[in-house]
Amino acid sequence: MSSGFRVLKSTKIEEVVRRSVAARDVFARHGMECYACFASSAETVEEGALMHDIDVDLLVKELNAACRSEE
Question: Lower CB count within 10 Å: N or C terminus of the chain?
Fold first, then answer.
């Protein structure tokens, strides 16, 4: 995890999982296995959340907490 990395709604899912192993657990907990599919390189956190009917603000908050836990 790069120090100071912050997940935004517009961050690509692929970038999040590349920078944070713990983020995979957050996605999986929400039923978003999309981090492992080819679409993750083009799909943003917000797009993924909307497709899975997940509160995007909650998801971003949890992803940032996961990233911070690895610093």
Answer: C
